[in-house]
Amino acid sequence: MLPASIQITGELLSAAEVQDICESLKEDSVRLLSVRGCQLSDRDFGRVCRSVAESHSIAQLNLNLGVVSSINRTRHLADALKTNRSLQTLFLHGSPLLDAGLVTLNSALSTHPTLICLDLGDCMLGDEALALICGMLPPDGAKSGLKELTLSANPGISSKGWARLAIAVAHSSQLRVLNLDYNPLGDQIAGMLAVAVASSRTLEVLDLEGTGLSNQSAQVFLDMVENYPTSLRVLVLAENEISPELQQQICDLLSEGEDDDDRASLHSGPASSALMPIRDKYQQIRDKYQPPAWLQHSNSSPQMVLLTSGLGESLLAETEM
Q1: Do residues 215 and 244 make contact, with C-beta atoms less than 8 angstroms apart?
Q2: Less crowded by CB within 10 Å, the N or C end of the chain?
Q3: Residue predicted with more confidence, 236 or 307
Q4: Is 47 in a helix, a strand, or coil?
Q5: Coil/strand/helix, residue 223
Q6: Buried b (16+ CB within 10 A) or exposed e, 159-179
Q7: pTM for the whole structure
Q8: How many Cα atoms within 13 Å fall on the side-chain side of residue 19?
Q9: 309 within 8 A of 117, measured Cβ to Cβ
């Protein structure tokens, strides 16, 4: 029997339900486990982590929306990751990890042999955590690292921290998708990221939705994609003070070379949707929160996305966000 999925959202999990999850994991019958927004006791969380450690089939683990709610749970997860050898994608979006949590997880994350997709959005991270994350983006020619990284809505990271990330991205030989939406980056950091994109030989997707950018940033990106070779295929600039005309020009340039089907999907709507977030097309499921109080966000309708491994490979199901 092929490994299946367990997907539960916003439930209070009983000890019996947790026992069923654990047995399925130990029997290697689960490829995807999602308990996003669920409540369970610390003891039961530890049991789930120990079963993840023993599983040889699990490829995707979704603990979004506060499931990893304490440093004690972070330690349980770190122990599981040190033993597990199959996990490819880990979602911790909306977990109050803080820098201390990343310090606890760092060794397990950075040495995991198969982990390529990591979501640390809205985890209350700062510069110390970001420095550790940069270590997961090894320079060209070094060991393999993350191919997909989400750092959405972590406003505690400073300009210095983002500059450090830009340098790491410029020299990363693996990273293909970078999501920085709903961080107060501004035009200066966007300029650094443009240089990083131009230097990277692998980065295909950059999400800068709602990051406080202006036409100045868009002009820099337009000049880059117009005059310099780049691997970038999708640049998300929605919810910024950028004219639809500039967004459309960038989209047109990035879509050159796409096949007819891809080009049709990019241009199937008005300019405002031409640069739709890549997550809505084929990226892995992500929890899209209401943005922080300092931003307004008009898109509150539910979205359907194809659940994937983060590399375009369909995993198991369609999931409503």
Answers
A1: no
A2: N
A3: 236
A4: helix
A5: helix
A6: eebbebbbbbbbbbbbbbbbb
A7: 0.82
A8: 3
A9: yes
